[in-house]
Amino acid sequence: VSGDVSFTTKGYKLHKLDSGPSSEVTLNKTDAIHYYKQMQVIRRMESAAGNLYKEKKIRGFCHLYSGQEACAVGMHAAMTEGDQVITAYRCHGWTYLLGSTVTEVLAELTGRMSGNVHGKGGSMHMYTPVFYGGNGIVGAQQPLGAGIAFALKYRNQKNVCITLYGDGAANQGQLFEAANMAKLWDLPVLFVCENNGFGMGTAVERSSASTEYYTRGDYVPGIWVDGMDVLAVREATKWAKEYCNAGKGPLVLDMATYRYGGHSMSDPGTSYRTREEIQEVRKSRDPITGFKDRIITAGLATEEELKELDKEVRHIVDDALKVATTDEMLPVEALYTDIYHNTPKQMVRGATIDETIPQPYLNSQELLKAIGRA
Amino acid sequence: VSGDVSFTTKGYKLHKLDSGPSSEVTLNKTDAIHYYKQMQVIRRMESAAGNLYKEKKIRGFCHLYSGQEACAVGMHAAMTEGDQVITAYRCHGWTYLLGSTVTEVLAELTGRMSGNVHGKGGSMHMYTPVFYGGNGIVGAQQPLGAGIAFALKYRNQKNVCITLYGDGAANQGQLFEAANMAKLWDLPVLFVCENNGFGMGTAVERSSASTEYYTRGDYVPGIWVDGMDVLAVREATKWAKEYCNAGKGPLVLDMATYRYGGHSMSDPGTSYRTREEIQEVRKSRDPITGFKDRIITAGLATEEELKELDKEVRHIVDDALKVATTDEMLPVEALYTDIYHNTPKQMVRGATIDETIPQPYLNSQELLKAIGRA
Amino acid sequence: STLTVRDALNQALDEEIKRDERVFVLGEEVAQYDGAYKVTKGLWKKYGDKRIIDTPITEMGFAGIAVGAAMAGLRPVCEFMTFNFAMQAIDQIINSAAKTYYMSAGRVNVPIVFRGPNGAAAGVAAQHSQDYSAWYAHCPGLKVLTPYNAEDAKGLLKAAIRDDNPVVFLENEIMYGQPFPVSDEVLSEDFVLPIGKAKIEKSGDHITLVSYSKGVELSLDAANQLEAIGVQAEVINLRTLRPLDFETIRQSLKKTHHLITVETGWPFANVGAEVLAQVMESDCFDELDAPVFRVTGVDVPMPYAQPLEVAALPQARHIVNMAKKSLNIQ
Amino acid sequence: STLTVRDALNQALDEEIKRDERVFVLGEEVAQYDGAYKVTKGLWKKYGDKRIIDTPITEMGFAGIAVGAAMAGLRPVCEFMTFNFAMQAIDQIINSAAKTYYMSAGRVNVPIVFRGPNGAAAGVAAQHSQDYSAWYAHCPGLKVLTPYNAEDAKGLLKAAIRDDNPVVFLENEIMYGQPFPVSDEVLSEDFVLPIGKAKIEKSGDHITLVSYSKGVELSLDAANQLEAIGVQAEVINLRTLRPLDFETIRQSLKKTHHLITVETGWPFANVGAEVLAQVMESDCFDELDAPVFRVTGVDVPMPYAQPLEVAALPQARHIVNMAKKSLNIQ
Ligand SMILES: Cc1ncc(C[n+]2csc(CCOP(=O)(O)OP(=O)(O)O)c2C)c(N)n1
Ligand SMILES: Cc1ncc(C[n+]2csc(CCOP(=O)(O)OP(=O)(O)O)c2C)c(N)n1
Ligand SMILES: [Mg+2]
Ligand SMILES: [Mg+2]
């Protein structure tokens, strides 16, 4: 097949909207291959991260995105130049999609110099010019995202800020505060709730008096979307972007998805749900195998093409892994960098008065340059 | 008239409720006189407070309740033993209704020993055994009220906690957090929004993307009530109490009322609304004159009876004023009291190391006893 | 000419809003009401809805929005009606604003000013009277400014707005209405003070009084009283708490060998404690002819009644007493 | 027998829940998940939904609910998954819990415990690593407890729950799994430690190390190293930061004449600064044979990569170095 193929997505549910995105969507071969590859990269990258964690090469927290790939890839597919994104700590996939390499992501997880922020942030704190992290405090990114949208509107940009949060975070008061101001001021913000069924060990019914997250913005209209279908996500996001940029203010998107792994790597993720439940989702709703089946059936790709692609993806991740496990870490001088922007070097008090020193480098870039790494 | 007289209140508006309070209410003479007197006491007490402020006998903030009397008096009329109340800083009327004397309120405002908390709290911080203040931080009382309701439920008490907040505070995130838990746990809390039209100088439309406050609890059902009609307020509160205590969880009550004065005494209150607007409300919606007309017309009271009552009220307030302006203030030792409950006396660091002293008295009660004032 | 602190702040805002179109002000009642304490008076009329923005009473939300806008390239001035209410938003100030530049290895900077009155006002009791100086100064990633007079207010606020980092700007409500004589330079729109530099408000050889914000006023009062008994006190106005200009303290101490710190906040782990500690840990220690003493607020929440409120706060006499003690004067 | 800090906390909770039906635990994942760090393990199974309550991720809300419940006569133990998240709720902790007894002239007391891990864990970066000891200790109205070992954890948590005032109880995640030898007395359900009393963990004549929480471990390490070079260090475990047991410090200093403070939090206006200040201001000052030095965390947000994280935190060698400096040992 060379042209566009039509697909039907699951119906959307609408809140305070007369019409919504179309369930009839089209897809061409290039995009099909592209989405497939992006989802696979994320899936494999996260598997690699999981292994690195088990090998104790990643410290602290490590929140994987496996199972939720269609959300990020679908939204990303609808983004246009100038659109911005902010999310919580489950940020590896987004970091990759928004301009960082797999190497930069994995090396950040292992705390190496080639990491997205050279090991200073770790799993939860990665950034690109249109991506504001990677935020560790549940809910904090909700007003931050509204603020980024505020800046877009201030500059008269026809763009949106995609502001992601989980079903657990959907109860945070600052979401309601941000939504109120976003609505009062018609900010172009998409509040996107990735409902993966759980906030840590708490199922949605136990955390949320209403699990109809697309209605929780009250006066902010909302759309429920099948978050396991990259095409539904893409379509809904496109529609939502148009809505926002028509000056109608914020929208809530509620993406029904699932988290395969534990909350973070230290959580086995099986005390609050059955292994069967996870298996069932993998079998019947997996965003990648589902998509794969559909594009093969539709003739947009062949089994062989996708196998080739899988191989390519494996290479990308394997190569990244090599760097992530062998690259050096920042020298200890980096402890004293990145304190203030455009400010002369400061004295920094160390563990004792005798270890109080002037900043050897102002910021990581300067340091990396000095050691020939940038 | 000796028996009950029927009145019709303005219609209620309902949110997620199939039925609501009745618009047909009855009133007997005793209650009529009682409500009238309570409202008049509050009105006069607040006038007195306003004058004291102008005479610089009250310091800091002084938020008057004038115009909103029907809300407190109506809710109070529906309360039964064991019910609890918490509100924000606009608390003088409630303090009086819930067991404190006019003297204790006014003397607190002037910072005297006979004040509700002997001058330690001032205008915003007064308490009685069923009244948790008097809270100065906008929104903080919302989860506190839910917590008081939590305690009621914990002890299997068939009671509610009336949790009041303004239209401005209605946007605070912690309200939504508290409402979520209240609903999840079926807490017997009445979230009561006293919509007096403004949060300081900001009209409701500028602070709230939706001004339908009775719907803002989303999954928490709500009722709009004419907050200028003491009978409507009483009826709605009665109904709401029954609802809560049937184990159905929280409710939102949205009381439409008006604030005659400025936000606090230092705000002339005329830059963001016209004097005509205030006059119009006074003329057409005043909770006291409206009620007075109705009960006289219905034969529940005569003009003369009410005049007598007015005189009595004036005496009460005048007597209170005397104490409030002549009573002594706590001796300076009181600075060091009330730090910890049931804890041996502490050393308290003063302005200098040389003024560091052991607590002369553990708490104000002890001090008052020592100086023969308790 | 003279200028009140309020007008100095207003001028600084006015000039910086005019100078840089990325600068805007948001907060409760800052626009149509002219500010709860009238610091933003006239700005909304002059600059309109885009630049001067009234927010709902949702500190966590609007502080977060301000921080997000700063990350995205604007330069918000986020007014808290008082810093007591900023406690609702402090996670956004610390975790989102102060830490992001470091966490992002310098990728994302956050040029924002959080400002408003801090510490005790008059008769507003415990919940409205807290002094947050020590809390904010404790945290790396922030710059923390504490203006005392009109010159400070103008020069430091302009510096804060032009700074590329999160600045916590702690004003004092009681000082707003106070007029101070100022030079023409201060009135010029190019007047900017350096962040991180203390100012010697009065020089003297016998004892150093280190203070900030309203404490400077007390210190100058005390210095006058000391003068009467022949003691020349040097009064240092810290102006910036983070980064602290310890060098100025050091130089003064080398001259006077006696030191008192003065602030209105609570004593435990306060700014004075840090000054004492830095003196003790540094070579200054040998310069001391007497221990350093702190003059502070009393270690209790703020009571309402006036006599108690007065007793809860340090007075010039406390400084005089401690100075005498330090100098061994009866 | 030995007991981990985690089990000690668990025992304390278990015993106090059993002892007083007004006691209940609420927080994120405390019930069905057994606690994010398993401190509440088994309690939900044992006591059920009424006493052990999972909350949504809404710190301001559930902390406020807990405070309200305490005002109304219950005795909540409010777990924060870590104290970093308590910043969202800190207004409820300070303004609603800490100040109400004072504001109400003793009419309303607030018997509540806020507990959870505080300070740096391992590899969790800037937003998850802050140490709030100095902040909370700054505020009157609170009691602030900082257990180090299993004995502290058990005895102090029981004391906190029985106390009629708001208690901030700062644990350390890294210490949870650590086993400590404990006496039978500690294991008994009557074991309660006094609030406001420090403990001498090791006595010595040459120098005093004052510390709390994980800093005590570092101090004991350092004391061992010092022993090897003939220095007998006395190690004081503060246990309570507010009210501070300065008397124990004073007595030790009278003996040793040398003092080092040790903590993992940031330096500026930290607990060590307060100790230095109190020493300087008191009669202890004359007992000093050398200045007091602080060992602290480095004044930067916490980086992720391990070598940087290690460099950001104080080590035993820092204490040894400062002790040598104090004692003038090369
Ligand atoms: C304010 C705050 N409270 C608690 C935590 C600990 N925590 C981290 S993630 C998480 C669960 C969040 O669940 P959800 O919002 O559904 O996102 P998901 O992890 O499912 O993507 C919790 C409780 C935190 N980081 N911040
Ligand atoms: C968190 C917080 N922010 C701001 C304030 C200052 N403030 C006090 S009352 C008020 C307006 C509240 O309006 P509303 O909730 O409508 O109550 P009303 O005064 O009308 O009774 C504001 C902004 C405060 N006390 N607390
Ligand atoms: Mg989730
Ligand atoms: Mg109002």
TrEMBL record, chains A, B:
It catalyses: N(6)-[(R)-lipoyl]-L-lysyl-[protein] + pyruvate + H(+) = N(6)-[(R)-S(8)-acetyldihydrolipoyl]-L-lysyl-[protein] + CO2. Residues 38-331 form the Dehydrogenase E1 component domain. Keywords: Oxidoreductase, Phosphoprotein, Pyruvate, Thiamine pyrophosphate, Transit peptide. The keyword Manganese does not apply. One of its GO terms (biological process) is pyruvate decarboxylation to acetyl-CoA. It is found in: Mitochondrion matrix. Its EC number is 1.2.4.1. Its cofactor is thiamine diphosphate. Gene3D superfamilies: 3.40.50.970. One of its GO terms (molecular function) is pyruvate dehydrogenase (acetyl-transferring) activity. InterPro entries: DH_E1, PDH_E1_Alpha_Subunit, Pyrv_DH_E1_asu_subgrp-y, THDP-binding. It holds the Pfam family E1_dh. GO terms for cellular component: mitochondrial matrix. It comes from the Eukaryota. The pyruvate dehydrogenase complex catalyzes the overall conversion of pyruvate to acetyl-CoA and CO(2). This is Pyruvate dehydrogenase E1 component subunit alpha. It comes from Diploscapter pachys. The lineage of its organism: Eukaryota, Metazoa, Ecdysozoa, Nematoda, Chromadorea.
